[in-house]
Amino acid sequence: MRISILHNRDHHLLEDDPGREAREDVVRVAAALEKALEGGKRKVSLIAVDRDVWSIGQALEAQRPDVVLNLCESLAADARGEMVVPALLEMVGVPYTGNSALALGLSLHKDKAKELLLARGVPTPQFQVVQSVGELISLELPFPLIVKPAREDASVGIDFDAVVQDRAALGRAVSRVLRTFHQPALVERYIDGREIYVPLLGNHPRRALPLTEIHYGKAFENKPRVLTYKAKWDEASPECTDSAARPASLTPALERRCIETAMAAWAALDCRDYGRVDLRVDKDGQPFVIDINPNCDLHPHSGFAKAAAAAGISYPDLAWHLIELAQERSHGNSAIETSRSTAARRTSGAHRDVHSRRGGMRARAHRPGGRRHQP
Ligand SMILES: Nc1ncnc2c1ncn2[C@@H]1O[C@H](COP(=O)(O)OP(=O)(O)O)[C@@H](O)[C@H]1O
Ligand SMILES: [Mg+2]
Q1: What's 99's DSSP letter?
Q2: Which residue among 25, 158, 198, 304 is best mutated to probe the pocket of ligand 1, counting the most ligand atoms within 8 A of its Cβ?
Q3: Which pLDDT belongs to residue 355?
Q4: Both 155 and 272 in a single domain?
Q5: Atom 18 of ligand 1: nearest residue by CA position
Q6: Residues 200, 185 within the same domain
Q7: Are 328 and 336 in contact (CB under 8 A)?
Q8: How far apart are the first and last CA of the chain?
């Protein structure tokens, strides 16, 4: 079997890229997955995409893969290119892992994703999209609020000043997003509560892997408890060391509520295969969806890989299972009952079985050379 791992290698393209660290990381993920999948009769090749988007077609032509493992998060240093890649693979007719153009596009357009959630009755904080500072006159949301770029990911554009308590700070935060990112700002009610992540794996059936929670420590005293860009990417910063991701300790009722909310959000965006839904839980125990990640980090030290490990799925088994999910789409999923790998068999247990093994989950590991926060 020929497997091509497709990833962006575009972190060097922009002189002043506010998401450079996030972009750089995917190169390491591709290398780790290449190693995990090698062996047997498999030929694994990489396709690194930089500025020349047309090179994808040429590489596919040369490698003729049976399946593509798609890790592309951006094209030419622009996150909006993420959704182009599955569309192209769809047209070429090669099976690929992960989410469709539609799901990736919706999740990146946070306001569109939230409109869908609201239409389906999935709780997400009230919001408004703002294209200019002038539009703030008509804004009626109560403070505190959080301001984020409407089309970014990986905490790009999030720092302590993103959380605002009054109109003056709101104006500054919005104008910074408009100026820096040349895209609308999403103004959202700030939920001051626990931050819980729900990793999801598989389609028929779909399982929640063990949930994690961000623990905000000293660096967040008298500060908004938000996972800033620094907290995710600058491992030398106190924000990073003081925002550990740990196995979530929830009452069974809250855990069930979090999983149900995450599953409903996932289905609303037509997501599939693997990814993560991020929640904040308010003081009344109500989970709110703040972010849907259908192309989440798959590094061996990522939260997703650790959650899989805690459920008894090794990294090579996880990598192989993603390939199987892509193949099921093109060959039908009869494989579910028959020739499954150990990974697939392990994921077909009930939520509860999976959760009971969470003891194996380690605290966030530090990754040399620009590691990423566990998400
Ligand atoms: N409505 C909200 N209430 C409280 N915190 C939030 C809210 N939205 C975002 N955050 C904080 O900001 C971080 C990044 O926001 P998120 O929407 O996940 O953006 P990204 O897509 O860049 O990861 C979250 O991990 C969380 O800590
Ligand atoms: Mg997020």
Answers
A1: -
A2: 158
A3: 30
A4: no
A5: 291
A6: no
A7: yes
A8: 30
| Euclidean distance between CA atoms 365 and 222, whole angstroms | 26
Q: Is the pTM of this model over 0.85?
A: yes
Q: Tell me which residue has its CA closest to atom 19 in ligand 1.
A: 155
Residue 134 in any domain: the answer is: yes
Question: Is a pLDDT exceeding 70 seen at residue 171?
Answer: yes
CB of 188 closer than 6 angstroms to any ligand 1 atom: yes
Please give the distance, rounded to the nearest whole angstrom, from the Cα atom of residue 278 to the centre of ligand 1.
8
Q: What pLDDT is stored for residue 332 in this prediction?
A: 59
What does the alpha-carbon distance between residue 86 and residue 68 come to, in Å, rounded to a whole number? Answer: 10
**CA 340 – ligand 2 centroid, Å:** 32
Is residue 153 in contact with ligand 1, taking CB distance under 6 Å? yes
Instruction: Say if CB 286 and CB 122 are below 8 A apart.
Output: no
Domain encompassing residue 175: 126-189
Note whether 253 and 162 are same-domain residues. no
What number does the ligand 1 atom closest to the CA of 149 have?
22
Q: Is the pLDDT of residue 368 over 60?
A: no
Residue whose C-alpha is closest to residue 32's, from 234, 237, 304, 348: 304
